[in-house]
Every structure is written in structure tokens, then in C-alpha cells.
Backbone:
């Protein structure tokens, strides 16, 4: 936890991270908290304790292979909001025995509910963005996290710089798949009038164009289309979260190996 009392947005953001169970303690770098809370399970969905994974043997082996070179570095997942992005983040966290956070959920939890029924982001977009930066400051100072980052994480140079404290992965999912999810979610919600598929796709396309420059700053991109082609699938919908997670870990392995080689090359003989 950042030391000292903050006024307004900063205070609520700090509180959100504290309530999620990973406030920073002197000298722990986040790992001491994880050890202290081993075997416990947080209530709610803001942070997921390290858990026994149900992934494939290939996924488990890959996670084991990269753990040493990863050295507890946090992983930030960017990209358009989708069920795939969330599932991949949680699966990676499970396999690496990391904590999982959704940065937008932390901000919303810190702000609390409103009688209007609207989210904090809908009520006060500027306040949400400021609080999001505070949350990213908190999370980027810790280790052994998988952070599902909201779009605000790639919309400012300050936030992009905070993501450099870990490894950033862009999960790129076709917009038509996300549009179908959006329409389905709207149909199940009593709080909103469902958009048509065309309307949802148009909105998502505008959002994608606005943020793709920030997404592209990630250390590596995992494209669902590319994974589908690699696995010779006939349909994009055949790609599973496990398929994507294995590709993420494979790319992280390459990144950590390159970093290790560069560090060794820089050492004096």
C-alpha cells in the first residue's frame, strides 16, 4: 500500500486494493502477503488466491518450465474486454500460482454502489480514470500477479509506463466474437436495452480503433485467429482458453529467455 493518506480518489483506490487482500508491506514485494495467506480464499471476485489448476498437462509443464526465469514478475493482460481475456488471465494465474486481479473491478469495488444503479465509470468517467491510475500504481508495485487491465491502462503514458513493471500481453480476439458476447449479455440483463449485433460491432470497432495503439505496445500479442490457424481449427470458436493460455506461456518463455541472454551478454568476463 502506498504510504500516507490520500484525499478523494486515491484513498478509495488504496482501499480497494487493501480489501482485495494484497496491500503492499515493507520488504514483501507482495510475496510475503501471498505466503501469509496461503491456503485461504478471498471472498468475491476481485482477487483469486493461488489455486489448484485444472489445466492440461502441457499447460502445467509449461508453467513449471518458465517459473524460475519469470522470477515472480507480474503479468498484465490488455485488449478488448471479453470472456476469453478473463478466462485466459485466470487460467494463467492458477497455473503460475499467482494472484488474479481485474483492475476495473478493483476500481468499482473501491467506489462502492450507487442508488442510481450505474457503475462508477458511468457516473464519473474522469474520477474512474484517476482511480484506475492509482490502482495500477498499487498493483505494479507488487509481484506474482496477473492483472486483467481495463482500457484505461493503455490510454495514457502514465498508465503505459506502469505496465512496464511487468510483462504485458495483448489478447486479441475477433470483434465479431466479442459483439456476440455483448448482445448475449445485454439480453440477459434487466438494466439495459439490448443492442443489435450491428450496433454492438460498430461500438466495439470504434473502441478498438481508439485503443489499438496502446494495445500494440504490449511485449507480445496472442491473436485468437493465429492460434486457430496454428492448431488447424475450422472455426475461431473452437479455440479454448487453454489453447490461448498455452500460447501466452510459450511467448513469455521466449521473452524471459531473451532477457536472460541479454543479461548474460552484459556481464563482464
Residues:
Amino acid at each position: 500500500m502506498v504510504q500516507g493518506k490520500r484525499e478523494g480518489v486515491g484513498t478509495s483506490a488504496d482501499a480497494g486494493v487493501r480489501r482485495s487482500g494484497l496491500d503492499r508491506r515493507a520488504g514483501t514485494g507482495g510475496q510475503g502477503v501471498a505466503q501469509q495467506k496461503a491456503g485461504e480464499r478471498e471472498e468475491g471476485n476481485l482477487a483469486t488466491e493461488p489455486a489448484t489448476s485444472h489445466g492440461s498437462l502441457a499447460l502445467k509443464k509449461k508453467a513449471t518450465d518458465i517459473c524460475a526465469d519469470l522470477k515472480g514478475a507480474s503479468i498484465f493482460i490488455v485488449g478488448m474486454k471479453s470472456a476469453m481475456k478473463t478466462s485466459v488471465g485466470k487460467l494463467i494465474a492458477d497455473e503460475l500460482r499467482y494472484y488474479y486481479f481485474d483492475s476495473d473491478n478493483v476500481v468499482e469495488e473501491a467506489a462502492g454502489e450507487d442508488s442510481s444503479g450505474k457503475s462508477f465509470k458511468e457516473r464519473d468517467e474522469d474520477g474512474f480514470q484517476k482511480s484506475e491510475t492509482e490502482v495500477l500504481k498499487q498493483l505494479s508495485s507488487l509481484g506474482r500477479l496477473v492483472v486483467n487491465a481495463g482500457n484505461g491502462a493503455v490510454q495514457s503514458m502514465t498508465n503505459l509506463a506502469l505496465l512496464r513493471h511487468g510483462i504485458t500481453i495483448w489478447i486479441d480476439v475477433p470483434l465479431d466474437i466479442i459483439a456476440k458476447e455483448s448482445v448475449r449479455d445485454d439480453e440477459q440483463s434487466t438494466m439495459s436495452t439490448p443492442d443489435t449485433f450491428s450496433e454492438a460491432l460498430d461500438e466495439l470497432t470504434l473502441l478498438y480503433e481508439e485503443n489499438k495503439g496502446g494495445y500494440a505496445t504490449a511485449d507480445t500479442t496472442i491473436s485468437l485467429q493465429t492460434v486457430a490457424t496454428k492448431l488447424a481449427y475450422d472455426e475461431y470458436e473452437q479455440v479454448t482458453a487453454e489453447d490461448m493460455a498455452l500460447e501466452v506461456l510459450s511467448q513469455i518463455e521466449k521473452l524471459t529467455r531473451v532477457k536472460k541472454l541479454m543479461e548474460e551478454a552484459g556481464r563482464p568476463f
